[in-house]
Amino acid sequence: MAELTFTPVIGIEIHIRLKTDTKIFCSCSTNTDAPANSHICPVCMGLPGSLPRLNHNVVEKGMLAGLALNCTVQPRSLFFRKSYFYPDLPKGHQISQCDLPVVADGYIEVHDANGNLKKIRVNHLHLEEDAAAMHHSASDGRLEGAATSYVDYNRAGMPLGEIVSEPDISSSAEAVEYAMNLQRRVRYAGASDADLDKGMMRFDANVSLKCSDGRWGRKVEVKNMNSFRALERAIEFEIKRQKKILLAGGEVLQETRHWNDAKGVTTASRVKEFYRKFIVEPDLPPLIVNQEWIDKVTAMMPEMPDVKANRYVNDMQIPREVAEVLTDDKNLADYFEACVSAGANPLRAANWVRTEVLRVLNERGQKISEFTISPETLAGLVARVDEGKLSTTQGKEVFDYMCANNSSIDEAIKHLGITEGGIAGNALSEIIASVIAANPDVLEEIKSGKDKKGKKLKFLQGLVMKETKGQAKPQEVAEAVAEAVK
Amino acid sequence: MELYELNLHFLLEGLKAKKFSASEIFQSCKRRIDECEGNIHAFITRTDDKEPQTENADGILAGIPTVLKDNLCTKGIRTTAASKILGNWRPPYDATAWKYLREAGAVLMGKVNMDEFAMGNTCGNSAFGPTYNPNDITRVPGGSSGGSAAAVSAGYVPFALGSDTGGSIRQPASFCGVQGLKPTYGMVSRYGLISYGSSLDQIGPFARTVRDLQIIMSVIAKHDPMDSSCFREKNPDFSHKDKVSIKGKRVALVKEFQDFTLDAPIADAMTRTRKILEDEGAIIVEVSLPVVARYAVACYYALAMSEAHTNLERYDGVRYGYTVTDASGVKEMFERVRSYGFGSEVKSRIIAGTCLTEPSRCDEYYVAATKVRTLIAQEFTRAFGETDFILQPVTPSLPSKIGEVDDDEMKGYETDLYTLPVNLAGLPGLSFFTGYAGNLPVGLQLIGPRWSDPELLNAGLILEAHLGTPKIANGGKN
């Protein structure tokens, strides 16, 4: 009997926090550093009589995120009430666009196991409100059995976009690439900071296995992944778990499972899936997006990272590997492009940013936005090296000095005692004359023809090089010294 | 004559002419309340223990006392929706409609009774006990805004606010003998109105004259960014005090309603009103509303309950209102809070709404009802192509005795049929006083197309000139 093989079929739901100053249905701040329950109002607390009102910036950010995922804006979308009882849900229902979303039908590309590009279809992005954050005093951090639970409603009403993929993903590696690519793109679009550490990006995965004997495993929803690593591990665990069941001739149950990051396992949700039903949110009119608005948002869309990287490769002859590093973060790419705009040679500027700038940022744990050397200044430095006024080594010394002392290029050059363009001509002749004058005995030996092996001549050349602090070309020094002692 | 007997526009004129002071009005109203409240029981919370000061001495309603249905939020003042579940909750904010009144100088005498969460039509379905009809305390005042209608009828205040989801302003106005307007959906901000059926709810005024309704509408019918369903165009003009002739205007009777039985005094009132309209030069026509007649009641209940059960999901004891502190776990907490906090009518509507929207039945009931609703709105739009107004009863019968149960189910259906469709289509409906049958007032209803509220009140002024204005009810004192 042929050995059974299994193909994973994976779909991912990603929640991203949309980047707005205020919440989705009220004007409370979205600042996450505030003390608990300080950014709340009748609306996000669901007080009797309060009504939601849609924040149009949230719609705009949702549209931007959707466009970044190659989606199409839907001219008419709706909000629904998604009901379930839980203390983190102020109204007992979540207002969500569910399946009539503001943007739909997109894709992003990932590399498959053979390194070929593969499209992962994005079904849609819908807008919804976040629930409050709960803090439980039970050891496992879950509500059941907790002695005391605290609710922080600052998070209630935070604007979310839920991005639902089609089940086009076949491995944990593809899943992670999909998620990372998505993160990069929504960041580029300015739609979300998608900061995993701050809970601004959260993952759920639907995992099932297709068996070579024609059997299909049931879909299992795995929740609670808050990092790329967790996403990867949870999917891998789930594939293994389901494979084992199917190999033993068992049946995979359709269920919701919870990823336990500490133990590295998924466990069946102890709470039965909440009973949910949807009615149209009667307090919000249908969301109508006209062409004018679509055009305005489309015009706000920046060049996406893959397009940008291709342009660097094709138009600037930058190696792909460097182009991908530069375009990973839009601010870094912007910095690089500002260098080029200021006149720097693109390839040289790319290498400088890739090696020197990123090295310093890594050493300091800084972001490019915090970097003290302006792209125009860096362009100036690159140009001086390019023109041969500074050697590459000198350029790097100047760069380090500038970083350390927050100085200008000229100050750094002066402080480091560098003569731009090196020492040659009269300046070199003067140094040679003074070296010779200080060593009459050596000169005598050479003139008398005793220096058969040229050791004394090399000795003089070495002294001259030392005097120029290495700023003269060795060939030139050798020739000039030989000439001077004749 | 006591000051409490004066209608709103006379009070405003008198104040302007300095014939009396706001303080004297307050004292007179307070005495009237003290005198009758033992019989009427209109209040849930009184706020007249000391004389409230007007916020705006130059405002159009400076010093005018009013009461609010207790589902309108009042900052710092207990707001109950006549339910135990809200406990002693004091909202941290004012409903927009009350804010507009307050800013115009009105002063609050208290919060008045209603059916719990506005579910009911007798005002007997309140956690605080029933309100009695000031015209005959053995009878119901109607509901759900029974406390507001009774307070205006008994002379407690010259005007009050209520809310109307399926007739909750028009029916008690008719039962208590006052004028009541259910404005076009979106005409008055719902912000701060504790929701029942959000797509049907609308705040509106009660007063003893149509002219007074105009004054109140000119204050509360303003755009409010806090309510997304509120109109966005310029504020409607309710200021015209003089009647505009209705000569040549068409007033329709609904063909399908003509076979239904009405109590004799209501049928008489229809005949009399029709004659007045004809004398004023209006043309009486007939419109056909077959979908309304056949499906409106079922459609209404499916939608109202579906929305209601989601609106009531927030009452879980976690953030405000009634709660328990010794439950083991949230599930038990939710169960105990909701079991104790809600009355039986509210519970049955929550259960009905949950069933109607349950995934396996949702398409058959809730979704179907939303489609029928569209048909009903379209039917009214067509009808208003053929007529300017529709004249019909508010209810087929006069107010029933308290505790009386009507076993005739078909009559129950007709009872709702005259009021519910107006909410489904978001139309304005005026419940106007036509006279008395013995000691009981008789009201009728005039309906207009959406946003025709000013024209509707103008027609009301013309009718009022013939039919007269109601007198102050005896308030249970014989």
Account of the 3D structure:
The complex is a heterodimer of chains A (about 475) and B (about 475). With about 475 residues, chain A is α+β, with helices and mostly antiparallel strands. Chain A has helices at about 55-70, 170-190, 230-245, 290-300, 305-315, 320-325, 330-340, 345-365, 375-385, 390-405, 410-415, 425-440, 440-445, 455-465, 475-485; strands at about 5-15, 70-75, 75, 80-85, 95, 105-110, 115-130, 135, 150, 160-165, 200-210, 220-225, 255-260, 265-270, 280, 285-290. Chain A has three domains: about 5-295, no CATH class; about 305-415, no CATH class; about 425-485, Arc Repressor Mutant, subunit A (Orthogonal Bundle). Helix content of chain A is about 40%, strand content about 20%. Chain A has a nine-stranded mixed β-sheet with strand order 2-6-7-10-1-11-12-13-14. In chain A, strands 5-4-15 form a three-stranded antiparallel β-sheet, with no helix packed on it. In chain A, helix 3 links the parallel strand 12 (about 220-225) and strand 13. In chain A, about 40% of the residues are buried. Chain B is an alpha/beta fold and about 475 residues long. Chain B folds into two domains: about 5-250 and about 390-465, Alpha-Beta Complex (Amidase signature (AS) enzymes), CATH 3.90.1300; about 290-375, no CATH class. Chain B has helices at about 10-15, 20-40, 95-105, 145-155, 170-175, 210-220, 265-280, 290-310, 330-340, 345-355, 365-385, 410-415, 420-425, 455-465; strands spanning about 45, 65-70, 105-110, 160-165, 180, 200-205, 250-255, 285, 390-395, 430-435, 440-445. In chain B, a hairpin with a 2-residue loop joins strand 10 (about 430-435) and strand 11 (about 440-445). The model of chain B has no long low-confidence stretch (mean pLDDT about 95). The chains are: A alpha+beta (about 475), B alpha/beta (about 475). The interface between A and B is large, with 33 and 46 residues.
